[in-house]
Design a protein that fits this description.
Shape of chain A: globular
Largest sheet of chain A: 7 strands, mixed
Radius of gyration of chain B: 16 Å
Distance between the termini of chain B: 38 Å
Order of helices and strands of chain A: HHHEEEHHEEHHEEHE
Strand content of chain B: under 5%
Number of helices of chain A: 8
Oligomer: heterodimer
Largest interface: A-B, 63 and 42 residues
Order of helices and strands of chain B: HHHEHH
Structural class of chain B: mainly alpha
Largest sheet of chain B: none
Chain lengths: ~210, ~90
């Protein structure tokens, strides 16, 4: 019961990966340096985008199994959504495209806005993972689908500034899709404009006093 | 054990009441956002705080509490280390 009470009070700080969990000195140094900004990021998601949940700690991560210690400002979000027939009818790559366009791009935009990162040579790039429940999966034991991407700073900033096309940006990404417990690999995703995160308001959601979303 | 029974009874009660009180406008709005934040639990939650139909309220803490109830159960997914390395 004590554990439940502690979890119930989890706040933005609980979604930032602890400094010591970064596996290298470089990662720990970045996590220390940008701790206030990471907390601010987490606070924004926590209060302003309550339909998203940060998973596995916001921090400076790297590509799995890569020996190089290239660090990416990284966020993994779970998007909560209901079964939707139109979404379920889409092929896998279109579902992934829709989820990345809706949630992945705004997360990238927010990560790139962290002050200081642009000129920091230790931040190689950005990583976003978007996770959702596979349509039609068992509600008692849902299958999760995850699209993860890694991209370098210059390409990401060029894409967001619209000086690099979405197609070219996707080609430069390291992109991996996971279907439940299976790694599917790269999907031919497309990225399009989606202003959902910037415009949608959860009906009846009452923001904590003093919080402002911008 | 007793607290679990009380919690379950409260949730069932909320589900029943919220369904009974939902207006067609509320459900219309709900349907218009079906791709988002519309799991049954969250829907129940939203409606439960909107008994009068005039001033719906859901706080961030409410959402956090609902997540900790683990209503998705154990999921089928990969190990985090397959997606990203710390």
């Amino acid at each position: 019961m004590a554990g439940v009470a502690a979890l119930a009070q989890a706040g933005p700080a609980d979604y930032v990966m602890p400094i010591e969990k970064h596996s290298t000195a470089k990662g720990r140094a970045l996590a220390t340096k940008y701790q206030p900004q990471l907390l601010q990021f987490s606070d924004y998601v926590y209060h302003c985008l309550p339909y998203l949940e940060i998973r596995n700690g916001l921090g400076f991560k790297r590509v799995p199994k890569e020996p190089a210690d290239d660090r990416y400002a990284a966020v993994w979000v779970r998007a909560e959504q209901a079964t939707d027939a139109a979404f379920a009818a889409l092929p896998m790559d279109r579902q992934a495209s829709a989820m990345f366009s809706r949630y992945g791009v705004p997360m990238l935009r927010r990560l790139t806005a962290i002050p200081g990162i642009q000129s920091d040579p230790d931040v190689y790039g950005f990583s976003v993972a978007v996770e959702w429940i596979k349509p039609g999966s068992d509600p008692n034991r849902p299958t999760m689908e995850i699209l993860s991407m890694f991209a370098d700073q210059a390409s990401t900033r060029a894409f967001l500034a619209k000086t690099l096309s979405a197609g070219d940006y996707v080609r430069r990404m390291r992109l991996t899709f996971f279907d439940g417990d299976k790694e599917v690999g790269r999907l031919p995703i497309e990225v399009w404009e989606d202003n959902f995160v910037g415009t949608y308001k959860v009906p009846g959601y009452e923001m904590e006093k003093g919080k402002v979303c911008s | 054990m007793r607290s679990k029974i009380v919690m379950a009874a409260a949730l069932i009660g909320i589900a029943f009441l919220s369904g009974a009180c939902a207006t067609s406008e509320q459900w219309g709005e709900w349907r218009s956002h079906t791709t988002h934040f519309a799991s049954g639990e969250h829907g129940m939650f939203s409606m439960a705080n909107n008994m009068s139909g005039a001033n719906p309220k859901v706080t961030r803490l409410d959402i956090e509490n609902s997540r900790t109830q683990n209503w998705w159960g154990k999921s089928i997914t990969v190990e985090p280390g397959q997606v990203i390395q710390n």
